[in-house]
Amino acid sequence: MVNKINSGVLIFLWMIFIGLIHPIKTAVAATNPAEKPFIHKHNSVVDLNNVLNGAQNSLTLGTYIQYTEAKNPLTIEQLVNGDLNLNWQNTERSTLALPRTPNPYWLNFTLLNSQKQSTQVYLYLDYALLEQIEVYQYNSATKALTTIATSGVNQAYYQRSFVHRAFVFPLNISANTQAQIFIKMKSESFFLLPLRLYTQQGFIEKEQQFNLAFGIALGILAVIIALSVFVAVTYQQTSFIYYACYSVSFFVFYSALKGFALEYLWPDQAYLSQPISFFALIVGLGFLNLFSISFLGLKNRAYWLYTTLFAVSCGCFVFSFVSLFLPHYYRISLAISIFMLSCILMLIAGLISVNKMMASKGYLFCFGLMNGAACLFVVSRFGWVNYSLMTEYSLIGSQFLAFFVLFTVLTERIKQSRRETLSAQLDAMHHYQQFYNIYQYAVEGHFTTTVDGKILHANKAFCELIGYSSLQDLLAQHTSITDFYVDLAVRKNLVENAQDKGSVLHFEAQWQTKDKQTIWVSLCLRYQNDADEGGILIGSAIDISSKKKADARLEFIAKHDSLTGLLNRLAFENLVTEVIKRSQTKQILHTLLYMDLDQFKLVNDTCGHKAGDAMLKQLTSELKMVLDKKGQIARLGGDEFGVLIPNKIDEQALLIANDLKQAVQDFRFLWGEQVFTLGVSIGMMTLGKSIDNFEDALSIADTACYAAKDKGRNRIHAYSLTDKDVNNRHDEMHQVGEIKQALEQNRFCLYAQTILSIQTRAKLKHYEVLLRMIDKNGQIVPPGLFLPAAERYGLMPKIDRWVINHYFKWLNEHPEQLEQLGQCAINLSGPSLADEDMQTFILDCFERYQIPFNKVCFEITESMAIQQLDETLEFIAVFKKLGCIFALDDFGSGFSSYGYLKNLPVNNVKIDGGFVKDMLQDPIDKAMVTSINEVAKAIGMGTVAEYVESKDILIELQNIGVNYAQGYAIAKPKPLSAMLTKNKKLETVEST
Question: Which residue ranges does the record assign to the EAL domain (predicted)?
């Protein structure tokens, strides 16, 4: 196919070359001096004997004609009388092509009849769109002037002197006479004047031949239109709808151009020929662009070109209507402009697609052929090449050849599509066979049933699942799948869901096999309408009995303690939460017990965890026997248990709690030769009054249990609303939650209290860094309200980290404060000293924020230092070596202060404020302050007095020899930000 197209292209180009080269030579020759002005009398006379006796019965008049442009009004009488000296010209072209001008042209040629009888010939002008033409005959011998006809494109078909689609004028020439023929023409566009003389016989033969050929051509064009529509509908080729519309437009254009539209379509409205012809041409170009877009698939191949061509197409449809209101010359200019733009874009489209699709080469050939023929047609109209059959009729001929090539390409495309379809069908059959094999031999059981359960199909795995060897064996005993459901209501629910949703996945049901064994299956079901059965269910089934057993085991493990088999904390939480919800709706009260074994740690420490685990197993068995069905017991932690006693409160619940306590008390655990006894502390609280969640309930019960421990252990403590011990501890636990939230939300702030050097004048600042918490309402919380809870529940290390990190960061962000700082005191708790990662954290903060070690003093509480002496000594050794200062806080409050003081390598001792604040009234307190100061000085340590609340105390401390003082008499604690404000005020005063 491609070779045929390439050969056709070469032949077409050769024809174009041959068709152009001779007319161009002729045109060049016509521009030489041979085409020159001459006078009214012209020697070139048409001898009618040659026409009448010639083989062709016709003569082309181009070289016999002389013409002139009438720039001033000129009448036929003035021409005949010879009153004017006109500039007449002639040409050597066979077809006259004149430049466009707003003035009319006059043409002149002479006919000689040398015969003895008059004769008639036909003057034929094959240009149906000429605006105005007047023909006159003048006999110079008789001076007779005859008006032959006046016509034009606006004259109705049947009103013409000689009814014809073009312009035909009969000329009667008398015997032995010579007649001059004058023609006046006016046109807004081209002046292409193919003028010929015909004898009557020649004209009849010519009309017969031309009408037949042109009728066949237009008929073929109509067939092309019909075929295009057929192709578009049959093969779903949208592009050929556009091609059919283009062909219709071309049909209208060419019919109007050649006058057939005037003869057959609008004989009464001849003026329509010009506007309709170019309207149809521009619309045709629009459809041709749309054809290119669709045929080449430009939207997916070159989107920018698609949008451009689509915009040009839309422009064609708009400008086609605009052209109806333009002068004819501007219609032509507009059509040529759009034609050239479309040619360029379609050529680019073909070149872009040439390597991407097979049809692009055929497309290039067709549109090269059509565009070449169109260009040849246009240049002949401009007179750049000579008029010929090729220039005039290659345009319509190219349409036939182009459609033939496009249809051939389409046929090949359809064949390829059919081959691909056939290949796809073969693949589908192969896949169907594979699918059948997969279906038949799949591990999963596949089946198809009707909605009421009738079995239509089933594979081998399905039959084996319920104990049958084949489908025939199954259907011999069961025809409905409902026979296998343990509960038919389950299948009803499954089918309804499938009908509502279209499909159901992983639906679990119990089936009964042939051997009456119950199995669990996972079903996937899809509902589908069926013409024969009304509706069918296509499904699969997998035996999940082992999975269900494993799930049940996992569920038990997830809800029970692995050691004792009791409910675990999560399951107990869910149980209690559900009970609380029911109690709030039904107003039923229940009791929650929190049990903590006493002396259990002794068993682990003495005999190991193996003995402890064995003891817990034995004890929980005893406790379950005591509870029987009276309540649920759960293991909440190592030696902590929770008990839910439903529907019983107060005395009834207390009796059960006493039974549990007595059972623990009576329990004896033997391990080797050792016998262990236990006690239990029980906290009891009532569910269903004001408690609406598990965490609060367990917290209160836990607090009540701690109260029982505080009162001597191995006892029961029942919570009440007026229970101060429980409420205080519960408030403390609530405060723990607030502290955690404050840490997460960064709701702390730092304060500073000045430490005054009272023996010498210090140039740099000395102060202690203090901590405050900010509650949810933005109010400051004093440390005494939250630090005890933080210490009790192990939150102090986190708080100490927050203080160190934020204070060091603040110093780093305010270098002027670091420069003015002599020493800052930071409190460290005992748990922080024992925290293995604390040393690393503090060292990292020193390095990250570039804080000098010698400017930081760590204060260690005396009681905590003595309790964790080894960890304290290790911590002090590390940081003291780096340059940090250490102070022993609250000295004097402990029991063995002096004994430990000489073993603690601290720099300063902070005298407990309890001695300082009353030293002026109490001689013993004064003696204690004096004693501590003297002992510290003897060891080589400095002293700091706390709670200095008056100037008198300050003076007395100075007299005793205490180095530093801290208290309200010196300065109250202020936010760190106040120090920045104070500095700014000082700078302002100094500048003033």
Answer: 732-987
What is the b/e burial string over 580-592, where b = at least 16 CB atoms within 10 angstroms of the residue's CB? Answer: beebeeeeeebbb
Higher local confidence (pLDDT), 781 or 867: 781
DSSP designation for 515: T
| Structural tokens at position 247 | 């062909």
Question: 3-class DSSP state for residue 90?
Answer: strand
Helix or strand or coil: residue 284?
A: helix
Average pLDDT, the chain: 81
Q: Are residues 826 and 750 in contact, defined by beta-carbon separation less than 8 angstroms?
A: no
Per-residue confidence band for 848, with pLDDT thresholds at 50, 70 and 90: very high
Section 826-852 average pLDDT: 89
Domain ranges in the chain?
35-200, 210-416, 442-549, 560-721, 748-988
Asked if residue 591 lies in contact with residue 691, where contact means CB atoms within 8 angstroms, the answer is no
CATH superfamily label, 442-549: PAS domain (3.30.450.20)
The helix (H) or strand (E) run that includes residue 534 is strand 534-543
Identify whether the C-beta of residue 698 lies closer than 8 Å to the C-beta of residue 710. Answer: no
At residue 526, the 3 state secondary structure works out as strand
Please give the pLDDT value at position 730. Answer: 58
pTM of the complete model beyond 0.70: no
Q: Kindly report, residue by residue over 966-988, the tens digit of the pLDDT.
A: 999 999 999 988 887 665 544 44
Quick one: average pLDDT of 456-464? 87
* H or E element that contains 18: helix 2-30
HSE-CB for 492 with a 13 A CA cutoff: 3
The 10 Å Cβ neighbour count of residue 725 is: 16
Instruction: State residue 531's pLDDT score.
Output: 62
In the CATH hierarchy, which top-level class contains the domain 560-721? alpha beta
What does the pLDDT average to over 411-434?
71
Q: How far is CA 215 from the centre of its chain?
A: 60
- Per the structure block, which two tokens stand in for 597? 């074994």
- Chain segment 10-32, per-residue pLDDT in tens: 333 333 333 333 333 333 333 33
d(CA 856, CA 769): 10
Count, in order, helices (H) and strands (E) of the chain. Answer: 34, 37
Residue 272 tokens read as: 């329509």
- Name residues whose C-beta falls within 8 Å of residue 680's C-beta, 6 or more positions apart in sequence: 595, 596, 597, 598, 660, 661, 664, 665, 714
Mean pLDDT in residue range 914-921 = 89
Question: Which of 436, 438, 456 lies closest to 447, judged by CA?
Answer: 456
Q: What are 604-660's pLDDT values in tens digits?
A: 778 888 888 888 888 888 888 888 888 899 998 888 899 999 888 888 888 998 999
- C-alpha dist (Å) from residue 40 to 35, 76, 108, 221, 447: 15, 13, 9, 47, 106
Which tens digits make up the pLDDT trace of 659-704?
998 988 888 888 887 888 888 899 998 887 677 788 888 888 888 8
Residue 568: count other Cβ atoms within 10 Å of its Cβ: 17
- As given in the structure block, the two tokens for residue 182 are 């004058």
| Cα–Cα distances in angstroms (integers) from residue 183 to residues 108, 259, 346, 388, in the given order | 6, 21, 43, 23
Cα–Cα dist 939/934, whole Å:
9
Q: Supply angle C-alpha 788, 794, 798, rounded to 5.
A: 100
Query: How does residue 368 score in pLDDT terms, banded at 50, 70 and 90?
Result: confident
Domain 210-416 has CATH 1.20.1070: yes
CATH ID of 35-200, from 3.40.50.720, 2.40.128.20, 3.20.80.10, 2.60.40.2380: 2.60.40.2380
C-alpha 349/C-alpha 213 separation (Å) is 34
Measure the CA–CA gap between 109 and 60, rounded to whole angstroms.
12
Q: Which tens digits make up the pLDDT trace of 797-809?
A: 889 999 999 999 9
Distance CA 388, CA 212 (A): 19
Q: How many CB atoms lie within 10 A of CB 267?
A: 15
